[in-house]
Amino acid sequence: MERKYTGTQNIPPMYGDRITVLSIDGGGIRGIIPGTILGFLESKLQELDGEDARLADYFDVIAGTSTGGLIAAMLAAPDQNNRPMFAAKDINPFYIKHGPKIFPPPRGPFESRFMKVKALMGPKYDGRYLHRIIREAIGDRSLHQTVTNVVIPAFDIKLLQPAIFSSYDAITDALKGTLLADICIGTSSAPTYFPAYHFETKDSQGNTRDFHLVDGGIAANNPTAVAVRLLNGETFKVKPDYLPPKAVDYGRYLVISLGTGTSKKEMKYSAKMAAKWGIFGWLYCEGSCPLVDSFSQASGDMVDIHMSVLFQTVQSQHNYLRIQDDTLTGTASSVDIATKKNLNNLMMIGEQLLKKPMSRVNLDTGVFEAVNEGTNEEVLIRFAKLLSQEKRLRERNYKQASSD
Description:
- There is one protein chain.
- The chain is of the alpha/beta class and 404 residues long.
- The chain contains 14 helices and ten strands.
- The protein has helices at residues 32-49, 67-76, 91-102, 109-121, 128-138, 167-172, 180-187, 217-220, 224-236, 271-274, 279-283, 290-313, 340-355, 376-403; strands spanning 19-24, 61-64, 149-156, 161-166, 197-202, 208-214, 253-258, 320-323, 357-361, 368-375.
- The strands form two sheets. Strands 1, 2, 3, 4, 5, 6, 7 and 8 form an eight-stranded mixed beta sheet that branches. The protein has a two-stranded antiparallel ribbon with strand order 9-10.
- α1 (32-49) packs antiparallel against α3 (91-102).
- The longest helix has 28 residues, at 376-403.
- The model is unreliable at 1-8 (pLDDT under 50).
């Protein structure tokens, strides 16, 4: 069953020059940071192509993990006219409105102490509000209905392996064509913060499949490489939507990868501290979870290093844009502090990040270093022009092919 393309859906890459990818990391309430950047990018596309332009119109795939998976679903879920339900400018208001209820703060010192003890015995939050608001926001839309392709990683704790949900698979495999809301809840079930999530899918023949999911950050907190790999998989299947195998050329890719910020430069842990940790120490230290911090940061950095090397190798480093802030400190680096003060601070961090010089990861130190290519804002404006040009080229070539 092939995807049908109409005037409201993206024209596939075979009619253009590029393959376009948008990727959004996990990071809880810090999703406000990429939300700010996405709002800016969409506003620039609207300046070029009109106020109805949406990010989903320009990307062959939108990938997201955990909070990034929710953002990806919001950007690609269809309304009654098969247009995106949410504009990028709607993301931050959603987080600001619902964040304090998803991550309710303790009401006084006694409850604060109680929550610390509770976090050692079970999930810090029950997840009920998170589940409800995701279902209300996304509704009963299924993965195969998205207006552009999405890729959302989770981790199946029963099978101890990644569970990658993609629009590509959903079209051909009914057992993976589940509700977007279930996928978003699963990929957001961060260990120690929310309970694991179970659901079952069924196809028309009565076959069933169980999923026992926790946060996708365990497998791919930065899902950029997952999205690119799946795009290559579509290419090697020689589907008419994509390109023949010989055309797998990373120089054709245009990739925007957005982080949610890290506290790497704060250096809040040390070998001296970690040497004393047992199970509880790795799960909780000064308000953070070193284990979660470590695996999410490690997987994110490995992907960025891999992608940076890949694009430099094919001399197309200008086609790969990674925007990340590794200077977060204090409450801003937390995934779950949703006070009004911190929410406003995260928006300000996102706005300041736009003004900072574009940076690339130093492959030796892992630290982001400025390069002489303008600010993130200026580079995003350049990418917006390239995305707009690609969209117009596809429309022109598709129209010509349809009339022949």
